[in-house]
Amino acid sequence: MQQLIRENTKIMSPRLLPEMKATEDDLAGALFGAAPRVFCDVARLDGQAVGFALWFYTFSTFVGRHGIWLEDLFVQPERRGSGIGKALLSGLAARCLA
Prior knowledge:
The chain is built from three helices and three strands, in the order H-H-E-E-E-H. The protein has helices at residues 2-12, 24-32, 84-97, and strands at residues 39-45, 48-60, 65-75.
């Protein structure tokens, strides 16, 4: 996960890359700890992680419903155009409608 996040940062905000503080342990604790509050859908091709959608639940007091906040959506540039991003978004949309 950390490598994909670094790739995303390098493309989107290269000047921030040296300031990235999240470690593998930080991510593992946040995503797989006893009470995760953030979630990640990972896209894999041939056993390799090539993209991800990092998200968490929200709640609107105005409409009285839960929602999902998509924090990051990333697909490696060489894998773009193959439907990976669309599949990640479709998975989140299905979760929203469930």
